[in-house]
Amino acid sequence: MPATNTLDFSNAQAAAKALKKVSQIMIRAGQPVVTTEFNPTARRTSGITYREATLTVASGQMVVLRVNTTGDIFQVLINKSLTPLKNQTDSEKAVREIATLLEAGQVGFQKKQARKAIALPKGMSTPAPKQTEVYAERVAQLDAQITERQATVADLLQQLEAMTDSLGFEASAVLTVSGAYVAAREIVLADPTMMDSLATAGAIAQLHQALSVVEANAPINEAEGNHDQAQLERSLAKSFITAIAMLDSVSPDLGDGGLSELVNIAIVSAADVSDIKDEEALAQLLALGMVETAEGLYMLTTKGRAALEDAGYDAYGEPFAAQD
After folding, report:
1. Beta 73-78 vs 81-83: how paired, if at all?
2. What backbone phi and psi angles, to 5 degrees, belong to 255?
3. Residues 3-49: tens digit of each pLDDT
4. Strand 73-78 relative to strand 62-68: parallel, antiparallel, unpaired?
5. Among candidates 294, 298, 293, which has minimal Cα distance to 261?
6. 3-state SS class at 299
7. What does the angle CA 272 – CA 273 – CA 276 come to, to the nearest 5 degrees?
């Protein structure tokens, strides 16, 4: 049976597009992706050539997709364990299956992570060389995460400066809610110590986290002579404060404007900042936890999909067919 809904991992550009599609499916399935990494090096096993992409979801679990030259996911590793898939010939179904497996394994994964932090009873120890290797590996992973996220923030700051012409605001102006929250998410994701809170923290909490980062960094950059970056961070602080105020003031009841924007995002499927039609409505959706961002794209959460269903729409923003 030929593969359907294939993923193109033939090069980095094609893989970026494919991973965006994967992220859309995952967030719809309740497993938002917070980071992706594509390895362009082709590998071969059992006569099959494939390339890998690593995904980290909000719960901290990791997924490695192995996509062959025909574009189907022929193998998947979940938290480093090779996991069989039933839907290898349909990539969209395969991704949804992976999301289900992540959901099923989330409690066990979190318990396992918690056990790592428990001190050994007196008189018990682990072999020193092995323990040293584990610590060294964790430190290396953390260093890599910090380096990657610092680069992401630097890139984000450059992008925000470049947005002056395309979005029509001055460098010192306040960003829209949609732009501010995307920026806040990137800043929060840049700090590995904050990543554990992503699964439970709401939009307001994440805006506060990002605000504390830029408020702390602005005077440091100013003192070091990085005046442009300091000014940009102060501008971001204003944007975050404005967004927090808007989210704090929204009604707890979803109104017509909020529902309309929810439908708009559902129709677009993965909405970027330019797709948002009503910023005040978006503020309400963020405050109510009905939308979230992944890689700068707004998508519905489980709560958002439930609200759509209650209003008579499916997850794609289409009204349910009238029943006779």
Report:
1. antiparallel
2. -95, -175
3. 566 889 989 888 888 898 888 888 878 788 878 889 989 998 888 99
4. antiparallel
5. 298
6. strand
7. 95
Provide DSSP, 38-97.
EEEEEEEETTEEEEEEEEEETTS-EEEEEEETTS-EEEEEETTEEE--S-TTBHHHHHHH
Q: Tokens representing 266?
A: 């559902």
CA–CA dist 80, 52 (Å, integer): 13
Nearest partner of 188 among 170, 160, 207, judged by Cα:
207
pLDDT in tens, 95-153: 999 999 988 888 777 777 665 554 445 544 444 455 556 556 666 666 665 555 555 55
Give the integer Cα–Cα distance in Å for 287 and 254. 11
**CB neighbours of residue 324 within 10 Å:** 3
Measured distance CA(287)–CA(250) in Å, rounded: 7
In whole angstroms, give the CA distance from residue 254 to residue 260: 10
Residue type, 180: A
Which residue type occupies 185? Answer: R
- pTM, two decimals, is 0.53
Give exposure, 179-203, as e/b (b: 16+ Cβ within 10 Å): bbbbbbbbbbbbbeebbeebeebeb
Beta bridge partners of 53: 38, 65
Q: What is the CA radius of gyration of the chain?
A: 21
Sole residue written with tokens 């105020």: 245
Outline where DSSP puts E strands in 243-284.
none
Residue 319: strand, helix, or coil: strand
Residue 89: C-alpha distances to residues 7, 27, 49, 55, 122 (Å) = 11, 21, 16, 20, 52
Residues 67 and 55: their CA atoms lie apart, in Å, by: 13
